């Protein structure tokens, strides 16, 4: 009888300190890309499929806590303990803008239309910079109840999502009114908040559980208690049938979205896993760890039911919408847009 082979990840070296954030670009004409943030102060850009190093963005003088790429993967942004957020040319590595803050910047995110950069951090203020007018003072949303840990855009840049380092819950802000319009309650501080590729789900990790929220009506769709302290989670973007989670036990876990049953447990990191993210096509996922490495794992067909999820034309049979409809009592707007 043939033994089941253990998953062998692509191991990406290069960082000299812990990797604390990862971000995949959407698929572009040149493929897709992976950027990493590390306490070594040097964000790195890689080929998202192979993990091959492309370049390092040099200029920060403190730990880099957050990183992201714009929709076209032409610009990168990073938030740092040196009290700055920087925007970079992702093709040349040149620094385009440096936005000074009064304290550590923990989070940053490009708007979907790529014109705005959102930042947050220890100041308890969300700032929105207009990248077309970088010298103009940013819009400030200053009613955050705590130090900002994560930020994201949703509803076609009409809503901002944020979580705090020292208090539970996820806050949703209306950009026009600059006010909190909804709070998604969690037991502990949310260390990871991800908006799904199609904008329908918000995936959160709060130390003890992974939760999935309807991004349009804000209801709780699923909540799974973890057997380990979980720091990060990500939903498979194509079928929505799996999710991954990582944390203090140093392993990367793959779960069934509908049942919460663990499918795979990937061992290999030598320190807590600070961030996990699915590639935009869902065929692989990356993990960043205290050990300074990034590992890219394949979602093998044997574990992912890939054969069953694809029809004879190679098209997915069931998308996230079909998966969502299987959840009893769960309603979701067909257009995936915020209701007026």
UniProtKB/TrEMBL annotation:
WD repeats lie at residues 57-98, 98-139, 141-183, 266-307. Signal peptide: none annotated. InterPro entries: WD40/YVTN_repeat-like_dom_sf, WD40_PAC1, WD40_repeat_dom_sf, WD40_rpt. The keyword Repeat applies. SMART domains: WD40. Keywords: mRNA processing, mRNA splicing, Repeat, WD repeat. It holds the Pfam family WD40. Gene3D superfamilies: YVTN repeat-like/Quinoprotein amine dehydrogenase. SUPFAM superfamilies: WD40 repeat-like. CDD domains: WD40 (cd00200). GO terms for biological process: mRNA processing; protein-RNA complex assembly; RNA splicing. Belongs to the WD repeat STRAP family. PANTHER family: EUKARYOTIC TRANSLATION INITIATION FACTOR 3 SUBUNIT I, SERINE-THREONINE KINASE RECEPTOR-ASSOCIATED PROTEIN. This is Serine-threonine kinase receptor-associated protein. It comes from Triticum aestivum (Wheat).
